[in-house]
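Q: Got a minute? One more chain.
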Amino acid sequence: MAEGYLILQARTAHEALPLSGVRIQILDGKGQVVYDLTTDESGDAGSVSLTTLERSLSLNPDYSGAVYVSYYVTAQKEGFNSIYISGIPIYEGETAIQPLVLVPMQADQRSPVWTEIVIGKPAVATQEGHFQPGPKEEEEPQILRHVVIPNPITVHLGSPSSWAADVQVSFPDYVKNVASSEIYPTWPEAALRANIYAIITFALNRVFTEWWRSHGSFGVRNPEADDGHLRGDFDPFDQPVYQHALAGVVRPAENLPPGCGKPLNRRRSALGVRSVW
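A: Always. Here it is, folded:
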């Protein structure tokens, strides 16, 4: 039986403080509880083993089915809003590290709010192409005098022309999250390196030419978004990462497991390749 691993880490205060005493449940696709855990003083719930599919499927270019098994996680602690994460992909022999960032309840808040975080298919598993526009012939992008490695890097959580939030993350975290959104962690090391080099090169090119800044491609969330989803109203570290690279982009939200109630917040997890400067 193929097995993968999941490490859950509870934090608060923008991941600055570990959170002990968080009750975590891991559920399978049928809503059955596989593990019932509690975080220790370091905010960790340990590493758990989960059944998944054979990694050879992810290495077969002719195979079009699922190459991983998805699991679901709930996290609850008194005095904090609760989290439900749907669709965490588990690959054979790989360890996924899933952060759980809990937000304290407001002083006048009587009951916790459920936030649903949705993780879905990696870009490599989708049929849709991904395109980032280049400069038009009549336009000349601004160019910096020296190559700069931005740390932190500003990420526009949406397409260049969309209304979406801008967040700042460290450059290594940006690269990890994009790689996690694009490829399978089970690929050979050479394939992982090639994709990561491409991600770094693309990001540094956009920074060096000041491409997005020169086009004014930034803004805030548009509350009138026609699909009802929040644009950029999430913490990029909701995205789990693997000890290699994790795949996970966006898919439609699913229902909460029994007893969770209806979430008042829904967040899309994973940075993907977004607009950067």
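A: The two ends are 45 Å apart (CA to CA).
Q: Perfect, thanks.
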